Amino acid sequence: MIVRIMGEGQVRLSDDRFTELNKLDDELLREMENGDGPGFRRTLAQLLDAVRRLGEPLPDDSLEPSELILPSPDATLEEVRDMLSDDGLIPG
């Protein structure tokens, strides 16, 4: 799966990596629902770090269709809330 982090670029992630990412996504969703700003900021950073660590960066000149788009590291709680589906940021 191709994942885009807004403002950074794209990474290729194997589908078997999504178990770990979904745990962080669930935590992020809970923090957003509870209005936990510091927790939200910490978990968003952990989620994006995990995507970078587990994925393979695509070249900057590569423009693959992104199957998943994640917010930038400096996105606000309100901006991320606008991006959410019922499953959070990551489906499944």
Protein architecture, described:
Helix content is 45%, strand content 14%. By secondary structure, it is α+β, with helices and mostly antiparallel strands. The relative contact order is 0.27.
Q: What does the main sheet amount to?
A: 4 strands, mixed
DSSP summary, beta strand count: 4
Q: Report the helical percentage.
A: 40-55%
Individual helix count? 3
- In N-to-C order, the SSE pattern is EEHHEEH
Q: Which geometry do the CA atoms define?
A: globular
Terminus-to-terminus distance: 13 Å
> What is the residue-mean pLDDT, rounded to a whole number?
89
Radius of gyration: 13 Å
Poorly predicted parts: none
Strand order of the largest sheet: 3-2-1-4
SSE class:
alpha+beta
Strand content: 5-15%
Summarize this structure briefly.
The protein contains 3 helices and 4 strands, in the order ββααββα.
Blueprint of the fold:
Elements: E1 2-5, E2 9-12, H1 18-33, H2 37-54, E3 56-57, E4 68-70, H3 77-83
Parallel strand pairs: 1-4
Antiparallel strand pairs: 1-2, 2-3
Helix pairs in contact: 1-2
